[in-house]
Each structure stands twice: as structure tokens, then as C-alpha cells.
């Protein structure tokens, strides 16, 4: 039997054990709670840190977008972004763009440096955002916005009407609606279709839209504004490479890494004018009224044989004879020179006479004297090349005809960009054809009309025609070669298809299962911008437009582009005569442009895909 004392001791021991257990439990709970709170605090810190990072990255990205608008070309001030770069070391030194920004509570500084300067401006933008000493950076490459970004561009606001077998593999921009006319064989893919209106009458079969490229209707298509079209930059570049020519130049033929220039040159050493002076270009074969032999008193002269385009002596107005004729009477000749294509350069055709000699009156007509007709040298001592070009409309200069149906001259050079001007078509024209190789990149810019007198070809695509096939558009064979051409005209680019020769059989895209092609294939490689249009010459301006080489037949013909056709005014390109038309963008243009190609003024720089990156400074 326990005594009271022993019982009290036992209870005391049990109470002590319970307290000990309770204390132990308290300590364990407290330690666990502390550990849990510590873990939760670390988690919250990580969340907060990530939240700050996201704020910083978002602010840095917003900074780039805010400042990218400063890389908008401003005619005469910022044509090449030169004002935005460090003048002494534009490709190595970062220069701050604008002032420091405050975005989402972060201080943001945007800087830039040039990747390329001049021909194809590119830059890298860097944006660093800071909050409480913590920094994150975002970088992105940008390039100049030009109209070579499109496979087809139509600036006019009347509907674009599509014929059968129309294929466009690249971005299409149209300010108006697109009418498919329920035609068959219409296909679009790659790059998207953007129309200011709607797409109508899509009932033809087969008819194909890549699902991811279905047209964006009601889109705000960038507009070519006459006041912002300028050839000043390419002209300045041509001066530096000695490739500025005047209106006595009537043909440029590309011959690999060189070109042949054909022009009128005076041979007489007599100073002053020789009456009658020839004009610098002529009625071309196929136009209404083109004489088979010299007979018309309304034609200054013709340059080309009616069927082949071969150069002929000048025909003098009203004389019934070719001029020059022979012996001592040969005062003007067709001269040629072979010139190396300028790297990243420009071949420029000025619509003016190569003259500093002032004006001379001949038989009631006003003419402009000139020096050294075969180049831009204006040394008055070089009288051997005195050249005379009519500059005003007279009855002996072809009446109201333009360079496609009469004399080639300037009636009103004061407003060459106004297509509504009655004198809009009266500017000089130059014929262009040939093949470019040797990795040459060049732009031909003309103040007057450009006539594509035969196919224009990239040698790499002649050697590897499979690069043109739709399934290979973005493959290495289609994107790894270097030659590139741009052609700008401040007037019109006419396709004189009746003179064209089909591609050699070895350079054609062959038919395979599911991809049928035709045996008579033609091409126009390059990007072409006509302020008014890029179009097949038709009606009285061309006579029969079908190729002479095919017996004036369009049967089983196919047309290829590797680049783009850009129409500033006219909505139609009149290419429907070809059985199939392949308007294929050159996918290299996603990251570059032809040198000094048409500037897209008042459009911010374009972002280059896959160049965005983030890091901790």
C-alpha cells in the first residue's frame, strides 16, 4: 500500500513527464513553424524577385518599342540613320537614343549602334531597365523598312482583280479589295495577305490559303506618298562610284559581274550644235505608227529593229534617211562601254541632259547643249563629245507621244512625280536586261521609264532552278546566294515581253507529281518599284505583246519573280497573259534589301526575327 507521500512523488514525476512532453512538443512545433516560415519567406522573395525581373524585362522591351520610332527615315535628314549613331565609331560605340525613360517604375536607357551603314541600314538596339539597383537588358536588331518587304504591293485604291493560276508566295499588300473572280489555281502562302478591303469571289478550285496566312481584311496598308518618294540618296551614291548617267544612255545590259552601257555619243570636233541633232531615245518596236522603214516625218528616230531590238542608226525627222549616214556625216554614233557593277552601289539614270552649256535655239526649238555625253564629266574643254538633247515640245519632236509611242524627251521636268500631269509620260526611258552573277548587289534607279527588254536573271537561280519550287522557297538553295537587284523608276516599268526569250531548258522548273509547270518559262529576278506601275506594255504601246520567240503565242507560258513587283499607282500588272504566274518573294529580303532601294519614309524600322535576347548587364 502506497503512502500518501509516495503517491505524491509519483504524481509529481508524471506531471513532470507531461510537462516535458508538452515542452518538447512546443519546441518541435516552434522549430517546424520557424522552418516553414523561413521556407515561405524564401519563396516569397523568389516570387518578388521574378516579379521585379518581369517588370524590368517588360520595361526594357517597351523602351525599345518607344525608341524604334526614332529610326524612321526622314527625307534629307535621316536617310541612313546617320544622325542616330556615333559619328566616329558607328558600328562599335553604343550611343544613347533620346533621353532616359521612366516605364512601369523603372528607369530605362535605350542605346544603339550600327550593324551596317549606307546601302542597307541595320542597327542593334539595347534597352537597360533599372529598379533599386537591379538591372535587366533586352536587345533587338532592326533594319530599314522598304517596299522590298513585299512580293506584291498595290498602292491604288481600286480593286485588285486576279486571273486564274495566280500564285503568290510571299507578303501581298493591297490598299483596296481583292477580287478572285472565282478563278481556279489561285494560291497564297508565306508572309501573309493584307488588304485594306475584303477578299471576294473565292469560289475557284483548287483554291488555297495557308491557314496561318488567311488574309487580314480591313488592314491599314502602308501608303506610298508622292511627297516622300525620293531618289536623292541613290543619286548621291552613284556620283561616288562614277555610275551616274544621263538621258543619252538608252540601255543597260547586265553581263555577270559587269554591265554594258549603250549610249549616244557625238564624234564631231566642231563646237556647237549639228543640225539636225538626234534625240536620245526613240519609238520602240510594236508601238502604233512604228515605221518598218524611215518614212514618217513625226518620228525623230528609231533605235531598234522591229523584230529583234537590234541597235539601228538614228532616223532623222523628215529627211527620209538614217542619221548619221556615212563618212564625214557621221556626227553621232551608238557607243558602248563595259563597266564593273558597283558593290552595294547604284546605277543612276538622270532624266536631264549631260549638260552645263545652257540653251541653244535651233529652228524655233529650244535645246540644251552638253559636254562629254558618255559620262557625267562636265569639263567644257571636252568638246569632242558635245551632245544636244531637245528639252521642249516642238512639232518636229513627235507631238504628244511619250517614249513608248514617240520621242523620248522632257516636256515638263518640274513635276516628274505627278501622274496626273499631262507631261507625266514624256520622260526618258532606258532598256534593261541581262544576268547578274558574281555575288553582285546593286540598284538601278531611273528618273524616267524603265523598259524590261528581256528576262533579268540571277545566275544562281539559272544554275539551281529547283530553288524556285514552292517547297524550296525558304531552303538554303534559295537563301544562300548573294546576287541581288533592285530597280526603281520615278515613272513606269514596262515589260516589253514581245522581245523576251524563254529560259534555257536546264534552268526551268520541271513538273513533278502534284506540281505542274510549263515548258516556256520566263523570269524577272529582283525587286521592281514603278512609281506609276510595273506592267506588261499593252495596246498601242506594244502591239503584239506575246514573245516573238514563241511565234507571238502565250500558249503554255510561265512567269517567275524572285523579289517583288511594287505598283505605286496602277492597280493591275497585266500579267494574266502568261498561263501561270509565280509572284515569289525573295526570302533573303526578310533581313536585307537591295542597296539604296526605295526608302519607306515615315515607317518605323522593322524588327528582325530571332535577334531578341535578354541578359543581366
Descriptive overview:
The chain is of the alpha/beta class and 617 residues long. The protein contains four helices and 36 strands. The protein has helices spanning 4-68, 232-240, 459-463, 476-479; strands at 95-96, 101-103, 106-116, 122-131, 134-143, 152-154, 160-161, 166-169, 172-174, 178-179, 186-189, 193-195, 199-200, 207-209, 216-217, 244-245, 249-256, 258-266, 314-315, 322-323, 332-340, 345-349, 359-362, 365-370, 387-390, 429-436, 441-446, 449-458, 484-489, 492-495, 520-530, 533-536, 557-567, 580-584, 606-607, 613-615. Strands 6, 8, 9, 11, 12, 14, 15, 16, 22, 27, 29, 31, 33 and 34 form a 14-stranded parallel β-sheet that branches. A hairpin with a 2-residue loop joins strand 2 (101-103) and strand 3. The longest helix is centred in the first third of the chain and has 65 residues, at 4-68. The relative contact order is 0.13. Residues 1-15, 25-29, 31-39, 269-329, 355-426 and 539-543 have low confidence and may be disordered.
Task: Please describe the topology of this protein.
Blueprint: H1 4-68, E1 95-96, E2 101-103, E3 106-116, E4 122-131, E5 134-143, E6 152-154, E7 160-161, E8 166-169, E9 172-174, E10 178-179, E11 186-189, E12 193-195, E13 199-200, E14 207-209, E15 216-217, H2 232-240, E16 244-245, E17 249-256, E18 258-266, E19 314-315, E20 322-323, E21 332-340, E22 345-349, E23 359-362, E24 365-370, E25 387-390, E26 429-436, E27 441-446, E28 449-458, H3 459-463, H4 476-479, E29 484-489, E30 492-495, E31 520-530, E32 533-536, E33 557-567, E34 580-584, E35 606-607, E36 613-615
Amino acid at each position: 500500500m502506497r503512502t500518501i507521500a509516495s503517491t505524491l512523488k509519483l504524481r509529481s514525476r508524471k506531471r513532470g513527464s507531461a510537462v516535458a512532453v508538452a515542452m518538447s512538443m512546443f519546441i518541435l512545433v516552434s522549430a517546424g513553424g520557424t522552418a516553414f516560415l523561413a521556407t515561405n519567406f524564401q519563396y516569397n522573395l523568389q516570387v518578388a524577385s521574378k516579379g521585379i525581373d518581369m517588370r524590368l524585362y517588360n520595361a526594357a522591351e517597351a523602351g525599345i518599342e518607344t525608341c524604334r520610332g526614332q529610326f524612321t527615315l526622314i527625307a534629307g535628314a535621316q536617310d541612313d540613320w546617320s544622325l542616330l549613331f556615333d559619328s566616329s565609331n558607328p558600328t562599335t560605340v553604343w550611343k544613347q537614343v533620346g533621353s532616359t525613360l521612366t516605364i512601369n517604375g523603372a528607369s530605362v536607357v535605350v542605346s544603339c549602334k550600327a550593324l551596317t551603314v549606307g546601302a542597307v541600314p541595320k542597327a542593334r538596339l539595347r534597352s537597360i531597365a533599372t529598379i533599386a539597383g537591379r538591372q535587366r537588358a533586352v536587345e533587338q536588331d532592326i533594319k530599314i523598312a522598304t517596299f522590298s518587304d513585299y512580293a506584291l504591293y498595290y498602292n491604288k485604291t481600286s480593286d485588285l482583280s486576279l486571273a486564274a493560276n495566280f500564285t503568290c508566295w510571299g507578303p501581298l499588300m493591297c490598299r483596296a479589295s481583292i477580287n478572285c473572280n472565282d478563278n481556279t489555281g489561285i494560291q497564297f502562302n508565306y508572309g501573309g495577305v493584307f488588304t485594306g478591303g475584303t477578299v471576294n469571289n473565292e469560289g475557284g478550285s483548287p483554291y488555297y490559303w495557308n491557314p496561318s496566312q488567311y488574309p487580314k481584311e480591313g488592314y491599314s496598308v502602308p501608303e506610298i506618298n508622292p511627297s516622300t518618294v525620293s531618289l536623292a540618296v541613290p543619286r548621291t551614291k552613284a556620283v561616288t562610284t562614277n555610275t551616274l548617267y544621263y538621258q543619252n544612255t538608252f540601255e543597260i545590259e547586265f553581263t555577270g559581274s559587269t554591265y554594258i552601257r549603250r549610249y549616244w555619243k557625238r564624234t564631231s570636233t566642231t563646237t556647237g550644235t549639228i543640225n539636225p541633232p538626234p534625240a536620245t531615245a526613240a519609238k520602240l518596236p510594236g508601238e502604233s505608227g512604228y515605221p518598218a522603214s524611215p518614212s514618217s516625218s513625226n518620228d525623230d528616230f528609231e533605235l531598234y529593229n522591229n523584230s529583234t531590238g537590234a541597235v539601228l542608226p538614228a532616223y532623222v525627222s523628215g529627211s527620209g534617211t538614217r542619221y548619221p549616214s556615212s563618212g564625214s556625216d557621221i556626227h553621232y554614233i551608238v557607243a558602248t562601254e563595259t563597266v564593273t557593277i558597283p558593290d552595294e552601289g547604284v546605277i543612276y539614270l538622270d532624266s536631264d541632259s549631260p549638260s552645263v552649256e545652257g540653251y541653244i535655239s535651233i529652228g524655233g526649238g529650244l535645246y540644251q547643249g552638253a559636254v562629254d555625253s558618255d559620262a557625267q564629266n562636265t569639263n567644257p574643254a571636252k568638246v569632242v563629245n558635245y551632245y544636244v538633247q531637245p528639252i521642249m515640245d516642238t512639232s518636229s519632236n513627235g507631238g504628244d507621244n511619250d517614249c513608248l509611242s514617240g520621242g523620248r524627251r522632257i516636256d515638263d521636268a518640274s513635276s516628274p512625280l505627278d501622274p496626273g500631269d499631262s507631261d507625266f509620260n514624256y520622260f526618258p526611258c532606258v532598256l534593261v536586261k541581262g544576268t547578274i552573277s558574281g555575288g553582285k548587289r546593286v540598284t538601278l534607279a531611273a528618273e524616267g521609264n524603265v523598259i524590261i527588254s528581256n528576262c533579268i536573271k540571277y545566275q544562281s537561280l539559272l544554275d539551281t532552278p529547283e530553288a524556285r519550287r514552292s517547297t524550296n522557297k525558304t531552303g538554303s538553295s534559295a537563301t544562300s546566294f548573294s546576287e541581288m537587284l533592285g530597280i526603281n523608276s520615278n515613272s513606269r516599268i514596262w515589260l516589253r515581253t514581245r522581245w523576251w526569250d524563254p529560259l534555257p531548258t536546264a534552268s526551268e522548273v520541271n513538273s513533278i507529281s502534284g506540281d505542274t509547270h510549263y515548258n516556256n518559262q520566263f523570269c524577272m529576278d529582283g525587286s521592281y518599284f514603278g512609281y506609276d506601275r510595273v506592267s506588261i506594255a499593252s495596246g498601242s504601246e506594244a502591239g503584239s505583246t506575246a514573245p516573238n520567240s514563241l511565234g507571238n503565242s502565250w500558249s503554255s507560258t510561265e512567269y517567275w519573280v524572285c523579289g517583288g513587283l511594287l505598283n505605286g499607282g496602277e492597280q493591275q500588272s497585266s500579267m494574266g497573259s502568261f498561263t501561270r504566274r509565280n509572284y515569289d518573294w525573295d526570302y533573303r529580303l526578310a533581313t536585307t534589301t537591295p542597296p539604296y532601294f526605295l526608302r519607306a519614309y515615315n515607317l518605323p524600322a522593322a524588327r528582325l526575327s530571332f535577334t531578341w535576347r535578354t541578359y543581366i548587364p
